[in-house]
Amino acid sequence: MTINEKSYAYGAAKSSIREIAAYGAARKAAIGAENVYDFSLGNPSIPAPEAVRDSIARSLELPPTQLHGYTPASGLPSAREAVAKSLNRRFGTAYGPNDLYLTCGAAASISISFHAVCNAGDEVIVIAPYFPEYRVWIETAGATCVEVLADQTTFQIDTEAVAAAINERTKAIIINSPNNPVGSVYTAQNLQDLADVLRAREAELGTKIYLVSDEPYREIVYGADVPWVPSFYDRTIVTYSYSKSLSLPGERIGWVLVPNTNPDHDELVLAVAGAGRKLGFVCAPALFQRVLMDCVDEPSDVEAYARNRKALTEGLSKLGYEYIEPDGAFYLWVKALEPDAEAFFEKCKALDLLPVPSDSFGCPGWIRIGYCVSYETIVNSMPAWAKLKAQYA
Ligand code: PLP
Predict the structure, then answer these.
(1) How remote is the CA of residue 135 from the centroid of ligand 1, in Å?
(2) The predicted structure's pLDDT at residue 354
(3) Does the structure show a pLDDT above 90 at 13?
(4) Which fold has domain 51-295?
(5) Strand-pair partners of 367
(6) For 259-279, how does the pLDDT look when each residue is reduced to its tens digit (9 = 90+)?
(7) 308 near 371, Cβ under 8 Å?
(8) Closest ligand 1 atom, CA of 249?
(9) Ligand 1 centre distance from Cα of residue 110 (Å)
(10) In testing the pocket of ligand 1, which one of 40, 180, 292, 331 has its CB within 8 Å of the most ligand atoms?
(11) Which of the four, 6, 65, 162, 235, has the lowest number of CB atoms within 10 Å?
């Protein structure tokens, strides 16, 4: 083959989440949308806040050359200033616009972060179950993805297992809290233990380990406190997007933060800019950079997800399903009724229930139910979940 074999392989392999979603769309066209319970994608069903539309309308008054022109690669200074001020208000920090690099969403933020820190032959640790695209972004940055299972009871980070997985090639670890796919939120104690382990292993090995904290669900929590990760570990890089918090996944807007407390700050800021350049991002969408100036503190509509979460957990619990109580994000991690999650998924599919089997997330024996769907979808799916359970009676 003369074209790039790795790129071909990623294209040919496809994401299993997207395959299930495509199957769901075809099935809806065939039997009617109301008869298919598609829980596959993390595509918010809650509309973006009114303030986003108002902001866009105001921007449309600008001269087109100003509105549609290139921005600086790191983003409009006033948009970065708005984000920095918001973070400082919320976390008692003292960040400035130069600590931020605006991106085309979390996918770009994470990919840029790995390209900024990794060299060929490095290893990056992921906590399984994990968002499957992490592997693609780690590998394309020249590194190897090393899976470390979360504690299988609490789904907090198993810090002893992380310590054991670290070696002289370990360049970074990526964590995600509130978590996709489990819905767990890492406690302050768990993050403190992780930071202690990273510092101890750095000292033993004489290396540097970067902690990438991927936080697109930070605001979607049900009463849990989401600790600010850079306050535990200096060598942290934070990646964020507005895909979930403001329901803007198609608009591609987010950021990378290199905290000014990071001891490698100045080099990292340049490496992040270099990675953005290398990957051809040029700048984040200009219109949505302006939306950030107006909407950075708009609250997320957590109430709607909380209602869905309640209906789903109460319904499944009555039927006798086991699951991990989610503290955040909008996914429910449910124990498959047989050891092989793929086989269990086939039985779900036969009833037009479309969750995602856990193997896609690097962990056997579970399914992920995305509850960022309409409330009706959840309520109307209950008879099918009951039928499924009855098959295992
Ligand atoms: N990280 C996690 C944990 C996610 O769940 C997602 C999207 O679902 C992303 C990153 C990518 O988000 P974005 O749409 O902002 O690229």
Answers:
(1) 13
(2) 98
(3) no
(4) Aspartate Aminotransferase; domain 2 (3.40.640)
(5) 334, 357
(6) 999 999 999 999 999 999 999
(7) yes
(8) 14
(9) 9
(10) 180
(11) 65
| Distance (Å, whole) CA 280 – CA 130 | 26
Residue nearest to atom 7 of ligand 1 (CA): 42
Q: Where in the chain is the domain with CATH 3.40.640.10?
A: 51-295
Ligand 1 center from residue 202 Cα (angstroms)? 29
DSSP code at position 152: T
Short-list 235, 277, 270, 244, CA closest to 103: 277
Distance between Cα 75 and ligand 1 center (Å): 20
The answer to whether residue 14 scores a pLDDT higher than 80 is no
The answer to whether the Cα torsion of 325, 328, 330, 331 is positive or negative is negative
**Mutation test of ligand 1: which of 40, 214, 292 has the most ligand atoms closer than 8 Å to its C-beta?**
214
Q: Does residue 1 have a pLDDT over 90?
A: no
**Which CATH superfamily includes the segment(s) 5-49+300-391?**
Aspartate Aminotransferase, domain 1 (3.90.1150.10)
